[in-house]
Design goal:
Shape: globular
Oligomer: single chain
Largest sheet: 8 strands, antiparallel
Structural class: alpha+beta
Strand content: 15-25%
Number of strands: 20
Radius of gyration: 29 Å
Helix content: 40-55%
Distance between the termini: 49 Å
Length: 614
């Protein structure tokens, strides 16, 4: 299914654009704020090809997509209020939310967009550490200095990055927010504070501090600026608002940040970092077990991003953090379990997904493995949780730390070089092996644990594309189909408005009016799915295609949605035909008419055995 088709399907199934208050995305999931969650169709979403799972947590409706999420979001955003992807409403402002949940949601929204940049800087930093430790590079060279600048800049200018995301979230003028952040890092001010640790502003004491890599001060500053900006825009006349509002906001917020938010934010950040350090020093073993063993659960709930500022604060304050050493093994456990599923499954599609998800987890993105494989089959989660806990314990006992901002993966292993590095290597290896072996031992139940609409063995099978009543194609009301001239097959009167793929194979044609789709099975059998009688005359009105030419589909995957009322009101029948258009080359079984549900086998198709004469 194409990105745009998937975006449209997801939007429709969460209740449409009118039900979406706002939507953002993280590395692997679309995060919706919905006015009415009851309007969303969770079961249908979970069955949609391209959707790995659906999570309702932290006040958000999260649709897990995987690595495609940036492209799907790009297609989705214009469908929600012209591309803003945010819509304010009475329901949003009056909806009650748990304060703690609201804070965690906000943290996730502010940090998620900058995680890729942080991860990129962490990879460069780790590789530089490795190169220096192996003697491949000298810290005094220009090459090292330039590459290290690329790594350090991401970390140093975190206030600027957060100013952007915070301003976007709280609807503050973005350039103004960036100026507030820049004022904290301006070299002349840093130099002044170096010479004058304490100064004053109109008699109010101002204490100097280093705000590079700080997190909380700029978030507090921009959040407060949002109230000031809205207030000024309400009272100032339009002609002067454009220049007067920014001037007042800057004149008030820069001093206020240096006097209040900077010191307060620094104290809070240090307190959080000190609290985490105290916990890890109290019992590294217990801390490792807790963080390593529960991290997959945080990912499931979508709350793992709330840990990012803790790690950043730790690195900024002490130059290292144990947090990512504790949670890193969990990522490798996800990869190990998924790889084991790929080995033991008998389903080719599952094998492909499992191995791909395992590789992605090794690169630090675990949702495809977690949602697409391990949670689907359930038993692998035993290995994931145990492997993460054991790996976290090993990292804790060995004193492993990350010495840069790094999302744990094989690519960022060099960022852990230092005290405890060997224990970190043992921890991630142990987590992978434990999850891998346990999954092999426990096995998977493909027939009972696979999604309800999945067809485990689709070889030669043509299944019902909808619930309804089937009959041989000779009973079709359309003479061309009934004559068999278009192929052998069957006719169905669908109960609803969704048509799913009757076979596993490739989409070779989608008619422009979306009422007909051509498919080719792996053995070469060509299948035509034709929705309705004379529905071509509707010119696509009431029809939505979920696939494009070239897509690979499995039996049960959505092909077309149509509005039965539009079809009937226009005077046409919803009778749907499924025929093997090149039936002369295949043996096609007869049809046993009667009621069916979507996914029930209706036909068997097999290649004719060639015979030779004498």
């Amino acid at each position: 299914m194409s990105d745009s088709a998937l975006a449209r399907t997801v939007l429709d199934l969460v209740g449409g654009a009118n039900n979406v208050t706002s939507v953002t995305h993280c590395v692997t999931r679309l995060r919706f704020d919905l006015e009415d969650e009851a309007a969303a169709k969770k079961a249908e979403l979970e069955k949609t090809p391209g959707v790995l799972g659906v999570v309702k947590a932290g006040g958000q409706y999260q649709v897990v997509i995987g690595n495609r999420v940036p492209d799907v979001y790009a297609a989705l955003a214009p469908m929600v209020d012209g591309g803003d992807a945010t819509r304010r409403s009475t329901a949003e402002t009056t909806r009650k939310t748990n304060p703690a949940t609201a804070v965690l949601n906000t943290i996730a929204k502010l940090f998620t967009p900058i995680v890729p940049a942080l991860a990129g800087g962490g990879i460069i930093k780790g590789l530089l550490v490795l190169a220096v430790s192996l003697g491949w590079m000298d810290k005094t060279t220009g090459t090292y200095t330039i590459l290290n600048t690329a790594a350090d800049a991401v970390f140093y200018f975190i206030p600027v990055l957060l100013a952007y995301t915070t301003a976007k979230h709280f609807k503050v003028d973005i350039p103004v927010a960036l100026v507030i952040a820049g004022s904290l890092l301006l070299p002349s001010l840093v130099t002044y504070f170096g010479d004058n640790p304490q100064t004053d502003f109109f008699g109010i004491p101002v204490f100097g501090a280093n705000y590079a890599s700080s997190v909380i001060p700029i978030i507090l500053a921009v959040w407060t600026a949002s109230f000031l900006q809205r207030g000024l825009n309400r009272v100032l006349p339009g002609p002067v608002r454009l220049v007067i509002t920014p001037a007042i906001v800057l004149a008030v917020m820069v001093p206020l940040t240096l006097i209040v938010f900077g010191p307060v934010g620094t104290l809070v950040g240090n307190a959080i970092g000190s609290g985490f350090t105290w916990l890890t020093e109290l019992s590294p073993l217990v801390a490792g077990i807790i963080f390593g063993g529960t991290y997959p659960l945080l990912v499931i709930l979508g709350l793992h991003r709330a840990l990012v500022p803790v790690g950043i604060a730790e690195v900024a304050r002490t130059g290292q953090t144990a947090l990512w050493a504790f949670t890193g093994p969990s990522n490798f456990a996800d990869a190990g379990a998924s790889a084991a599923v790929g080995i033991i499954t008998k389903n080719k599609a599952t094998r492909s997904v499992a191995f791909a998800a395992s590789l992605t987890a090794l690169c630090g993105i675990t949702e495809p493995a977690l949602y697409g494989v391990n949670l689907v089959f359930k038993r692998p989660m035993v290995g994931v949780l145990l492997g993460g806990a054991v790996g976290g314990a090993i990292a804790g006992i060995g004193g492993a730390h990350a010495y840069a901002v790094a999302i744990p993966s094989v690519l960022t292993i060099p960022a852990f070089i230092g005290a405890g590095f060997v224990s970190y290597l043992i921890a991630i290896a142990a987590a992978f092996v434990i999850a891998f072996v346990l999954t092999l031992v426990l096995g998977i139940k493909e027939n009972t644990d696979a999604p309800a609409d999945a067809v485990v063995d689709t070889t030669g099978a043509v299944v019902a594309p909808a619930a309804g009543r089937v009959a041989d194609i000779s009973a079709a009301s359309d003479r061309a189909f009934a004559s068999g001239a278009l192929g052998a097959g069957f006719v169905i009167q669908p109960d609803g408005g969704r048509i799913v793929s009757p076979v596993t194979g490739e989409v070779v044609m989608v008619f422009p009016t979306k009422h007909a789709v051509g498919l080719r099975m792996d053995d070469g059998a060509e299948i035509l799915v034709h929705v309705g009688v004379n529905t071509v005359k509707l010119e696509g009105r009431g029809f939505t295609a979920h696939v494009e030419k070239g897509d690979r589909v499995v039996a049960g995957a959505p092909l077309v949605d149509f509005d039965p009322e539009i079809v009937r009101t226009a005077g046409y029948d919803t009778e749907t035909y499924v025929v093997v258009s090149n039936a002369s080359n295949f043996e096609v079984s007869s049809v046993a008419g009667g009621p069916v549900t979507a996914g029930d086998r209706v036909l068997s198709v097999s290649a004719k055995v060639a015979t030779s004469g004498v």
